[in-house]
Amino acid sequence: MAAEPRIPPLPENQWDDVLKAVAATTGPLHVFTTLGRHPELFAAWIGLGSRLLMKGTLGDRVRELAILRTAHHRSCGYEWTHHHRLGLAAGLTETEIAALRHDRDAHPWDPGDRAVLRAADELHATGTLGDAAWADLAGRFDERGLIELVMLIGHYHMLAFALNALRVQPEEPDRPEEGGSR
After folding, report:
1. 5 lies in some domain
2. What CA–CA distance (Å, rounded) separates 118 from 146?
3. 80 exposed, middle or buried (CB, 10 Å; 0-12, 13-18, 19+)?
4. Residues 36 and 69 in one domain
5. Residue 63, SS3?
6. 78 and 136 housed in the same domain
7. How many independent structural domains does the chain possess?
8. Are 171 and 29 in contact (CB under 8 A)?
9. Which one, out of 63, 64, 131, 171, has a CA that is 20 to 30 A from the CA of 76?
10. Residue 83 parent element (H or E)
11. In a domain, 103, yes or no
12. 72 and 124 together in one domain
């Protein structure tokens, strides 16, 4: 059984306008209703998170590969659960998603996917990218894409720290915003 949340989600009758607007779009996800207990920080954070998730320059597949690999590295079940579904919607297969929990060489990733996963792995392990990893990425992404990929991976590391430390619990599996299955 999962540990109890350290900070429970904010009851709906205490939501501010920012949290109400986010929940109207996404549903009352625990990530939002928990972080919404700090309204000023939540309002600042949701802009960056929304930009990276919905308005970024990276393709959906690239974004979800990076997020799921980061969720794996940070052992963040909440991130993994949500982005598993988003990964499938972005064109990842169940086999590919399962392979994200293993060594890069255990799956025949194409060179572009392998470069993204290497970036996530190196940033996790060392906090930076080596020249070879950077060169692989620079062959695939423009300046904006390079900046965004590094920021995306860093953002989801930070979010995983918060979700794990606060013990944010997944939503119930039968909730409509969760797609009804896991």
Report:
1. no
2. 13
3. buried
4. no
5. helix
6. yes
7. 2
8. yes
9. 131
10. helix 77-89
11. yes
12. yes
